[in-house]
């Protein structure tokens, strides 16, 4: 067995354990943060050094380490580094559980990193549960009424979703006699028919997986969870959890359900319909929000819809095209979320409010924070010269190539809707009068992270080939 293939996951889990043990002996804020960042940095170095053209199967096919999983592993590590940096100023509110907070972030990361590597249904389920249980705890870590209520809602709905997912897996096993994704594909392909039991299993499995990414109609938990959680954890939910969920959906459906072609096209059109509903409902509800965290929650739901366009393309092409475009979109989305949330964290803590109206005149009090936040929002809209523009261009072009013009028309209309509420924030910051002339200084650590994320958005918007070439080699290893 080639253990080096999962060294990053082993390193992250080991670092989490080390943080808990070190806190028993030497409970210091700086040590905990340094250990967490050191573990993530070392894992990033190992991931960058990986061979993205190599596919390795581990534990009798339970995990598959290939270019797809390695590319997504790198995105997840980058987002987690941003979360840890963004959490640094939360020490006053979390000092009683500072070590546990960082350890659970890394345990969640372990599950998230394993999700894109899942080679069978059991490993996918276990990876999802590792991350989900950790995220339930992180949402409620503040232990106030809003945080506790959000964690409880997320846990109860998540428990139901997990049960539904497991029930679907049982149906799939019962009809194909296998839990291995490639063997499920062979069983379906050899029979040439999709039985009622298998179809029911796929529907139940999809329902559980769509909960993980907050797709309509399984999105109900997201706004409350985003608002009640510490803002760094809101970033974790919005970016890392969503990206890992899309990754595991792509692997499971592309490998296990790409045969026969008619079946792949059927689930492709079903995902396209859910995509249209998700982006439309997310954007319409975002229009009504006055709280920045709830607005970003519904915005995240809308972006789930855009990501599902990429999943739909995989269905129509049987996984043979659309993967690089989806990967580029996920990377651009992650950068935009880090840029937006790290800036929002600083602003809301300084203003002591999450209300968008209180951002009035922010450009006069902190030009840097206003610029980076504006840049992140513009990328989320999908306007040039940001990475968000190139990401939408790539994913929309791929969908049109598969005959999904109707879906892209809906997506473009939704982009126009999103421009209204994103640019409303920009207008409030740059055009309205401030309530105070007191300067808002960006702290060094979150300020540096937000500036780097903003620079990444501009760089990939101007020179997208820097990432798209890597994405083109980072493909799911088809059976």
Oligomer: single chain
Structural class: mainly alpha
Number of helices: 20
Spans where pLDDT lies below 50 across 5 or more residues: none
Question: What level of helicity do the residues show?
Answer: over 70%
- Shape descriptor reads globular
The major beta sheet can be summarized as: 2 strands, antiparallel
Radius of gyration from CA coordinates:
21 Å
Strand % is: under 5%
N-to-C series of helices and strands = HHEEHHHHHHHHHHHHHHHHHH
First-to-last CA distance: 20 Å
Mean pLDDT, all residues: 89
Number of domains: 1
Tell how many strands the DSSP assignment holds.
2
Strand order of the largest sheet: 1-2
Give an overview of the whole structure.
The chain is mainly α and 479 residues long. The chain has one domain (16-473). The protein contains 20 helices and two strands. The protein has helices at 7-25, 29-48, 67-86, 91-94, 98-114, 121-139, 145-176, 181-191, 196-212, 222-228, 231-256, 261-287, 292-317, 323-351, 362-365, 367-381, 387-401, 405-431, 444-462, 465-473, and strands spanning 56-58, 63-65. A two-stranded antiparallel sheet has the order 1-2. The longest helix has 32 residues, at 145-176. It is globular and about 70 Å long.
């Amino acid at each position: 067995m080639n253990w080096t293939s999962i060294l990053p996951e082993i390193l992250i889990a080991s670092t989490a354990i080390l943080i808990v043990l070190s806190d028993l002996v030497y409970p210091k804020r700086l040590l905990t943060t340094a250990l967490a960042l050191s573990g993530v940095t070392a894992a990033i170095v190992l991931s960058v050094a990986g061979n993205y053209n190599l596919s390795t199967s581990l534990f009798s096919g339970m995990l598959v380490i290939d270019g797809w999983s390695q590319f997504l592993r790198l995105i997840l590590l980058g987002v987690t580094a941003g979360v840890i940096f963004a959490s640094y100023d939360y020490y006053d509110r979390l000092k009683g559980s500072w070590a546990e907070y960082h350890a659970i972030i890394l345990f969640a990361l372990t599950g998230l990193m394993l999700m894109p590597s899942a080679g069978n249904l059991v490993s996918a389920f276990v990876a999802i549960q590792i991350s989900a249980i950790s995220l339930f705890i992180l949402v409620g870590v503040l232990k106030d009424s809003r945080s506790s209520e959000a964690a409880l809602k997320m846990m109860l709905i998540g428990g139901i979703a997990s049960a539904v997912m497991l029930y679907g897996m049982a149906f799939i096993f019962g009809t194909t006699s296998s839990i291995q994704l490639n063997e499920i594909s062979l069983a379906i392909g050899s029979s040439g028919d999709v039985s009622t039991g298998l179809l029911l299993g796929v529907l139940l499995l999809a329902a559980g997986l769509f909960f993980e990414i907050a797709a309509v109609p399984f999105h109900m938990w997201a706004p409350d969870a985003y608002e009640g959680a510490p803002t760094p954890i809101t970033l974790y939910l919005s970016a890392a959890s969503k990206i890992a969920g899309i990754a595991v959906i792509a692997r499971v459906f592309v490998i296990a359900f790409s045969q026969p072609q008619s079946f792949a096209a059927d689930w492709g059109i079903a995902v396209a319909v859910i995509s249209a509903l998700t982006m439309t409902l997310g954007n319409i509800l975002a229009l009504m929000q006055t709280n920045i965290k709830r607005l970003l929650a519904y915005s995240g739901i809308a972006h789930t819809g855009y990501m599902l366009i990429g999943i739909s393309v995989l269905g129509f092409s049987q996984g043979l095209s659309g993967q690089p475009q989806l990967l580029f979109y996920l990377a651009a989305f992650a950068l935009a979320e880090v840029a937006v949330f790290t800036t929002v964290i600083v602003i809301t803590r300084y203003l002591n409010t999450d209300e968008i109206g209180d951002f009035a005149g922010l450009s006069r009090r902190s030009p840097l924070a206003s610029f980076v936040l504006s840049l992140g929002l513009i990328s989320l809209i999908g306007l040039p010269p940001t990475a968000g523009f190139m990401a939408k261009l790539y994913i929309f072009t791929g969908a049109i190539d598969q005959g999904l013009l109707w879906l892209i028309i809906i997506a473009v209309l939704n982009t126009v809707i999103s421009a209204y509420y994103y640019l409303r924030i920009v207008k409030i910051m740059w055009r309205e009068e401030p309530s105070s002339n007191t300067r808002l200084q960006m702290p060094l650590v979150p300020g540096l992270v937000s500036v780097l994320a903003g620079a990444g958005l501009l760089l990939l918007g101007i020179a997208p080939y820097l990432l798209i070439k890597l994405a083109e080699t980072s493909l799911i290893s088809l059976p």
